[in-house]
UniProtKB/TrEMBL annotation:
Belongs to the ribose-phosphate pyrophosphokinase family. This is ribose-phosphate diphosphokinase. It comes from Candidatus Acetatifactor stercoripullorum. It comes from the Bacteria. GO terms for biological process: 5-phosphoribose 1-diphosphate biosynthetic process; purine nucleotide biosynthetic process.
Length: 400
């Protein structure tokens, strides 16, 4: 764990507690396990003797929390233990559609609106007793509705203002569609993290013959919106960048958006090269698969798709078919949002685990220690690349 010595010499803000809503129970348990492990490894005599460190090293940091619902569909949040004076971290996944509840005899799947409303219920149940409230929402609620075009709502900005007014001190999210939405609450903490290190780590663990240099690899942005991610990723890896430009039909609207007419490629020759496509999310996956198809037609060797959020809103059939046709080789996505169980059985799927990283963030924030180490992923990526290349070279020498 980075900067362990700084943590050992820092005082915690308050005793740590994690409230994982039902949408993020699996992630909450994994984060809790890492935190227990982290704090057991701390070598500081004050932890054992100083009253200020009371409750510091525990076997469980998850708080007892329930959000029961009535037959009408209404709900309430109930804490089963005291949270007075605690540094409380609320964990919620607004994209978990697998959770259901009964309303007037009908089964209803929870929507992002339902999860957001439950989050507000939990904050209200704190009743001003927690020392500090921090919200970890990996997929930013209404993050794609971040700016106004005509007479329409500004849902994301309004949600951030609402959480601020309810007493939330810090807001943590991942790969926000447009992080400038934090300007809605400029005096509150807003941290936006990206997972390039976890992407390359998962990919290198999966592929033993990947050559990371300009002659063999290129990073592609599927549209102009993801170009910043692609430029950073390619710069750290030391390879070139390419981009697809989406031509849309702005005269019609299908499923709330203008349909894509064609993808135009801007970049260097990709003949025989491995391709990494990087983006923030796979929604239906249509444009991503179309991009992969065009890359294969341009004689790309292998196509790896890296996305922070794998929503797969239209199911996996299109991905199964595209994989069988050889349009892509692997899909790397994080566990920050709910993933359908059947995805884990697909031969093309690779999961990038984010729970250890989030546990580190929580530990640093509980001590009010700088997050610069977490934000600076360049050195970590260079380190894992060096280890991978050394291993690969040895394997090649052995084969020769």
């Amino acid at each position: 764990m980075p900067n362990l010595r700084e943590l050992e010499n820092a005082m915690p803000v308050a005793p740590l507690k994690i409230a994982a809503l039902s949408s993020a129970e699996r992630m909450g348990r994994r984060i809790n396990d890492y935190l227990v492990e982290f704090r057991k490894s701390i070598h500081n005599e004050k932890v054992k003797s100083d009253p200020a460190f009371h409750g510091y090293s525990e076997s469980n940091y998850l708080v007892n929390l329930q959000v029961p619902r009535f037959g009408s569909g209404e709900a309430k949040a109930v804490f089963g233990e005291s949270i007075r004076g605690k540094d409380l971290f609320l964990l919620v996944d607004v994209c978990n559609h697998s959770i259901t509840y009964t309303i007037n005899g009908y089964t209803n799947h929870m929507s992002p609106d339902d999860h957001y409303q439950d989050l507000k219920r939990v904050i209200a149940a704190c009743n001003g007793k927690a020392k500090r409230i921090n919200v970890i929402m990996p997929f930013l609620y209404e993050g794609r509705q971040h700016k106004r075009s005509g007479r329409e709502s500004l849902d994301c900005a309004y949600a951030l203002e609402e959480l601020r007014d309810m007493g939330v001190s810090n807001f943590i999210t991942f790969d926000a569609h447009d992080p400038r939405v934090q300007n809605a609450t400029p005096l509150n903490g807003f941290d936006n993290f990206t997972p390039p290190y976890q992407f390359i780590k998962a990919l290198l663990n999966s592929e033993d013959d990947l050559l990371v240099d300009k002659e063999h690899l290129i990073v592609i942005s599927p549209d102009e919106g993801a170009l910043d991610r692609a430029i950073y990723f390619s710069s750290v890896l030391g390879v070139d960048t390419g981009m697809f430009y989406k031509r849309r039909d702005y005269s019609t609207i299908v499923n709330g958006k203008n349909p894509i007419v064609a993808h135009e490629f801007l970049g260097d020759n990709i003949d025989g090269k491995d391709i990494i496509i990087i983006d923030d999310m796979i929604s239906s996956g249509g444009s991503m698969l179309d991009t992969a198809k065009q890359l294969k037609r341009m004689n790309a060797r292998r196509v790896f798709i890296c996305c922070t959020f794998g929503l797969f809103t239209d199911g996996l059939d299109a991905f199964d078919k595209a994989y069988e046709q050889g349009y892509f080789d692997k899909v790397v996505t994080t566990d920050l949002t709910y993933l359908p169980p059947e995805l884990y059985s697909r031969p093309y799927f690779i999961e990038a685990d984010m729970s250890k990283f989030i546990a580190s963030l929580i530990d640093f924030m509980n001590h009010d220690v700088s997050l610069s180490n977490a934000l600076a992923t360049t050195e970590k990526i260079h380190g894992i690349l060096e280890a991978y290349n050394n291993r690969t070279n040895i394997e090649f020498l052995t084969r020769d």
